[in-house]
Amino acid sequence: MMKGALSPEAAAKLVPDGASVMIGGFMAVGTPERMIDALVAQGVRNLTVVSNDSAMPGRGVGKLVSAGAVSRMITSHIGLNPETQALMIDGSISVELVPQGTLVERIRAGGMGLGGVLTPTGLGTEVEEGKQVVEVDGERFLLEKPLKADFSLIAAWQADYVGNLSYLLTAHNFNPMMALAGRTVIAEPNAIVPVGVIPPDMVKTPGVLVDHLLVRANTGGQPWTQKN
Amino acid sequence: MDAKELIARRVAREIGPGMLVNLGIGLPSLVANYVPASLAVFFQAENGVIGLGARPPEGMEDPHLTDAGGGFVSAVPGAASIDSAMSFGLIRGGHLDMTVLGGLQVDEQGQLANWKVPGMMVPGMGGAMDLVIGAARVIVAMQHSARGEAKLVRECTLPLTARRRVNLVVTDLAVIEPTDAGLVLREHAPGVSVAEIVAATDARLIIGDDIQEMIVA
After folding, report:
1. DSSP string of B31-64?
2. What SUPFAM superfamilies does the entry give (chain B) (predicted)?
């Protein structure tokens, strides 16, 4: 089915204070920046953010942190954002640190209808605290629970009119898994192209998962139309 | 040659032809500079590329192609881009031949701590816990001491990255192999005596008769 394209402002209005939000990206590569800018401009508060990292001040998730929009993070790394570290230490943001491979598997489990994942990562470390250890054929694993969110904010390279998405190089990262695990999925593509331009084998996120597309970025050029 | 270059050049000698290798951010990433192209090694960056290449010329960087530290890179012929689930499937699933990671402490059991200094610095573990669990060989590349404090300790006081024993520790003073019996001193850096190494080490070292001088790539 054809998707409507929303302005970033209209898309941001869908996200209420207190929502849980998965945000694609790895050090702000493959992060929906226009969507984040609109959330900051809207003044959203008290978000729970699930993302690989908190990027750095002025980029990606870092912009939400700086704006005071985040009260909780589930993430694997905050080391390159001193603001997140300071806010965690003074208690303004609660941070659950999750090993990166476990984080993506918890998101996958949430999106794929699994009751959790069994992983050896974290056994015998602080990560094990409070978790169930499951023995399978004599080997021990941690039971890590699935993650879902109210929204997934995805950055893609191309989208077509039915919402199929393709990604470029290292800008895939968490996006394809997060597109499964958000109750409402908003994708910010670099370009929107006619159906068929993305060959079916290049589609990494099928359009059936995508609820809304952001309008294309205003790159400055305007086509000639009857209006102008 | 400064300390970091010495460590990177020594670690580079551990890398064999055709291996799939993950280099951590910081010091470990320097190792790639000393691995000859003829070895046809594939470097993985956990953010999603197998076949990481050098930084492209100024003005030719692509914002969609970075390493795990967020720096611009290129890709070598045969490279593949992957998502995070595949990337960590490779790591955790035993498909990675080697990882080289930085360290805050390594103890006598060869256990690594490298992700947290409680109350002071909490960067997070990122991919380190999965890498130590999953890689066939784990090499720790680190300065022997930090601010006068030994980093090779009897028992880690910092939170562990994993229970697994790492395979090799390369510092600016020595090459040390954790074994069932304990930490075995294998090599000393050029111009560094065994006594100096022992003095800079809090952990007990097993000192054999056949300690070699470190050879670097």
Report:
1. GGGGS-GGG-PEEEETTTEEEEEPPPPTT---TT
2. NagB/RpiA/CoA transferase-like
